[in-house]
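Summary for the steering committee. The consortium agreed at its last meeting that each partner would contribute one worked example illustrating the joint modelling workflow. Our contribution is presented below. We chose a case with several input lines so that the handling of multiple components could be demonstrated. No manual editing was applied between input and output; the record is shown as generated.
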Amino acid sequence: MGRPPGEPGRVAYLYLLPAFVVYAVFLLYPIGRAVQISLYDWDGLTLGRWAGLDNYTAILSDERLRAGFGHALVLIVFYAVIPLAIGLTLAAILNHAKVRGLGFFRTVVFLPQVVAMVVVAVAWRRVYAPDGTLNALLGALGLDGLTRGWLGDHTFALPAVGVVGTWFESGLVTVLLLAGMSRVPMELYEAARLDGAGAVREFFAVTLPSVRGEIAVALTLTVIAALRTFDLVYVTTRGGPGDSTSVPSFEVYHRAFGLGQVGSAAAIGVTLTVVIFAISFAINRLADKGTT
Amino acid sequence: MIMGRSPRGPRTFAVLAAGVLALAATACAPGSSAPPAPSPAKTAASAVRTDAASLGDVTLTVWDQEVRGGQAAQMKQLNAAFEAKYPNIKLKRVSRSFDDLNTTLRLALSGNEPPDVVEANNGRSSMGQFVKAGQLLPLDAYAEAYGWKTRYPDTVLRYSRYSADGKVFGEGNLYGLPQVGEVVGVFYNRAKLTKLGLEPPKTWADFQAALEKAKAGGEVPMQLGNLDKWPAIHVFGTVQGRHVPAEQISTLAFGRKGASWTTPENVKAAEELVGWVDKGYFEPGFNGQGYDPAWQAFGKGKGVFLIAGTWLLADLEKALGKDLGFMLPPGAAAGAPPVTTGGTGLPFAITAKSPHPDAAAAYIDFITNADAMKVLTSTGNLPVADTAQQSVQAGPQQDVFTAFGAATKDDGLVPYLDYATPTFADTLGAALQDLLAKKATPKEFLDTLEKDYKTFAESNG
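What follows is the complete predicted structure of the assembly.
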């Protein structure tokens, strides 16, 4: 009653139903099941034993696992923060310079995204090998003192894995930002010029605020990628040397399929999901606040 | 924006969360849908039938991991021979790579119609858990009927033995039978030794002197790539076998109570290994080198020695030919009884729910009998039984056969150290990377191992 014409009524839910059923069967039910399993001590074979929140408290007290979450946070710097800095610079230059063959550059920059992560990881494993490309390059530059087995070095293994992430994500971020920048009306730049702004001032006053939305999207995607890193670590280091590159996703796989601690694996998975959700939520909140 | 905020947002989320929780609370416990395993009743040899031809029409589903080169060839050949001999038994073969088999077997076994015969990894987190869940059939009655216990050395059979509750590893019921053997030893490059004026070392002191001489001669004394975490386990195991009594190693490696990692002998072994790093016997950056590139480098003539398992024989022989040699790690004195890490390929087991255990056992016997061992030899595998009776060409393959025969004959095989506890492969692999990179002292290294071992051995009872 009193509803303006054209406003959807309850019947709208009927239209939503088919999509919701698919969503529920393939997403909500598995999530619910994972939450449930995480409350049990279960080996995947015999009858599970109710464990309450034990699996979760174990996560908090497990030093190795805490370190794993710490490593994931370090990876955020390499996956999200550095690519954002690179992407902003690169996109601003490409957008401004109006270089010939922009499409070509865009493709080249984006290319890593097209390659499967496992392939990327295998390639980089070769680059980082003691007799690999990186050491050969350093040797050629006369920097023999710096050569090492990068992925087997306790100090450099995690950054080395991180750099692969930077290489992988920078293209995505650049292309996203480039799309955003090309939308900025030329008049804004002209106005800034007339007001006497240089290139740097122009970037901070016009470009950066205009692509706030794209930055939020880029950060959300890359942060999620950083936190759920699995294939890269699985192929390159298996969490080594020692535990210096262990990450939560790898631990989920390892516990569920290697050790048969399915309950504990589910608990880590759920925790990771909550953390990812919280961080993406925070990023979008911040971005939203800026636009209103 | 990725997540546009609608005024309804929070409420929708709350409803969803409530739904998820309600689902979690009402659904039944994980694992409860699997029916209880039938109690394996057959224990007496008289109750089993070995006359495979008279078992009627049967289809056996077999899951194996024999997908590579000679492994695949022997399996194909033996399966064809089996079906030709027993036309009433059809084989449905499913073969997957080791990793794929490991991850899918768990699900397959907990289903209602698991395969009849499966290749299950010996370790606690595979076979041990399957036994605990009542998913595998004890094979002792068949072992008696087919005479497996007389043909197979006991040091070999124990790798497939568990107590009925799956807790004790290395003794109890027999749950599987392997086709091939494995032993860790020392591969050497004969040409390089000759160039250095050396003979294959006969004692452990000779061996270390050879390493020193190789270093002085500008060679890489020992090839090692430890990026994959586990390769150094075999090197440490080899050094440990020179210092720690075999008895103690077995107790530690089977994860039983009554031994310790922090003994002076273990300290000595760890110190000796660190000494090898200090003396530069490994290439710099070995912790960052992959396992495959390392043995491939050895195959290309880089490195005088390589401590590794017989599974590399075929590939290394292809690369080095007659220059390749293999020996068991030498003892303190020449001719001392051998002690070395070794075991078997994955054993073939029968699932408890299989409706055709007799046919399944007949199949397992067929692929492991004396004729099968000949087929294994001719396809380049290392047969686990009757090894001494096989005739092979002189050269690396004969070295390996001789070594395995000697090790099993004198009960010289000690189990893989990573069998000890479900988490030990990881604990030991990571701890060794720390030790070799000098991030942990020998004492800290052994304390880490002791903690994992003690925690498990005590809780396991």
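Chain A has 13 helices and two strands. The first strand of chain A starts at residue 40 and ends at 41.
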